[in-house]
From TrEMBL:
Keywords associated with the record: DNA integration, DNA recombination, DNA-binding
Family: Belongs to the 'phage' integrase family.
Domain Core-binding (CB), first and last residues per copy: 95-175
Xref: InterPro entries: CB (IPR044068), DNA_brk_join_enz (IPR011010), Integrase-like_cat_sf (IPR013762), Integrase_catalytic (IPR002104), Integrase_DNA-bd_sf (IPR038488), Integrase_DNA_bind_dom (IPR025166), Integrase_recombinase_N (IPR010998), Phage_Integrase (IPR050808)
Keyword Electron transport: no
Residue span(s) of domain Tyr recombinase: 197-371
CDD domains reported in the protein's UniProt record: INT_Rci_Hp1_C
Record-given protein name: Site-specific recombinase XerD
UniProt lineage: Bacteria, Pseudomonadati, Pseudomonadota, Alphaproteobacteria, Rhodobacterales
Length: 395
């Protein structure tokens, strides 16, 4: 045994089998000489009745003194009762973020989330999370890594915030699965970007334009009667697109539309008489369970975006999305004086906060009532009509 130095290490000869040479000063510090000639610095100690050994680096990549310094650190940790080699081994075995993503998708998303949500998660994983931090060890991800990823997409605030949400769910589950310490979610305290929520409602005149275009499209057969019925039902019920698109005849009962599943679970949607009239006028396609029949004999209309773009163009409403029909339903309900809680129930919202985006519209009937009331009172008071600033001092 001798003190391991550059000269000493390079003097060790290659043999048919690998062998160790140990340092004379630091117990457990040595070098392994492989038949290939590769020489690797090693640290070895016993812990819990077992021999623990780890590589400190290849000779040439690190110096003998660098290896010696690291060996001293490790043996110091061992003397304190720690097991650094096992920690290193566990870290090497620790899953990457890419592996966490796949476990999250297979064990969580596929079992607990609807197909549409699964699609959103898959997109976030494949396009944003994987390319940025997929190669990181799950245990090594820090808040600054998440903040940097979030900041990278600041020009797309909605996408940046949705990706942050997916990451937060993933790292919460990483704690549940024992892959990270409790309370270590690196997404905590990363502020979301402000989102400009779009609020586009159709006015009465715009609804009339849309109604005329739908009638002409149906009469002229430029769109199928099922497509036209879908848009009318969306306006009259405030349903989500998928709820009408995948509506089955068996879901329609005397109580309304009894959906066995929706974005928020099983849901009963009231069917006003106008909506029932549309449904009663639709012919049923033999052996097709869907109300909005599509091109395939037993399927629903899978693409309503293309016909909607044609319809809105003819109506001069090219900035209106299909989802804005749901906004229009909600805005009309609130503006007519319907309590916000009731509107939330009609829309199938699980949280009042979601419906509160329409709360400011409730002021409209109040202002109208105030104006009408003041008009009646002003007549009794014989309040003159305003003709500019005609104030005069009373003498």
């Amino acid at each position: 045994m001798a003190k391991l130095t550059k000269r000493i290490v390079e003097s060790f000869e290659t043999k048919a089998k690998s062998y160790f040479e140990w340092d004379s000063e630091i117990k457990g510090f040595g070098v392994r000489i492989m038949p290939s000639g590769t020489k690797t610095y090693q640290i070895q100690y016993r812990k819990g009745g077992r021999t623990r050994r780890a590589s400190l680096g290849r000779h040439g990549n690190i110096t003998a003194e660098q290896a010696r310094s690291r060996a001293k650190e490790i043996m110091g940790e061992v003397s304190k009762g720690e097991n650094p080699v096992e920690d290193i081994a566990q870290h090497r075995r620790a899953p990457t973020v890419a592996a966490l993503c796949e476990r999250f998708f297979e064990d969580h998303a596929k079992e607990r989330c609807k197909p549409s949500t699964q699609g959103e998660y898959r997109r976030a994983i494949d396009l944003f999370i994987g390319p940025a931090i997929g190669s990181f060890k799950t245990v090594d991800v820090e808040r600054k890594d998440i903040a940097e990823l979030h900041h990278k997409f600041k020009h797309k605030p909605y996408q940046a915030n949705r990706t942050l949400g997916v990451l937060s769910k993933m790292f919460n589950l990483a704690e549940v699965w024992g892959l990270r310490p409790d309370g270590s979610n690196p997404c905590r305290h990363v502020p979301k970007y402000r989102e400009q929520r779009r609020e586009r409602f159709l006015s009465q005149s715009e609804l009339q334009k849309l109604g005329s275009v739908l009638t002409r499209a149906e009469q002229g057969c430029s769109e199928t009667r099922y497509v036209v019925a879908a848009f009318r039902l969306l306006i009259l019920t405030g349903c989500r697109l998928s709820e009408i698109q995948k509506l089955e005849w068996s879901f329609i009962t005397d109580r309304g539309m009894e959906l066995p599943d929706s974005k928020t679970g099983a849901r009963l949607i009231p069917l006003p008489q106008a909506a029932r009239a549309i449904l009663s006028a639709l012919p049923r396609v033999s052996d097709n369970p869907y109300v909005i029949a599509g091109k395939s004999p037993k399927g629903f209309a899978t693409d309503l975006q293309k016909p909607w773009r044609r319809i809105r163009k003819h109506a001069g409403l090219e900035d209106v999305r299909i989802h804005d029909l749901r906004h229009t339903y909600a805005s009309n309900a609130v503006s007519s004086g319907m309590p916000i809680q009731m509107v939330g129930r009609l829309l199938g919202h699980t949280q009042l906060q979601t419906t509160m985006r329409y709360a400011h519209l409730a002021d409209d009937p109040v202002r109208k009532a105030a104006e009408e009331n003041a008009e009646m009172l002003s007549k009794a008071l014989e309040v003159p009509k305003s003709h500019g600033n005609g104030c005069h001092a009373i003498s």
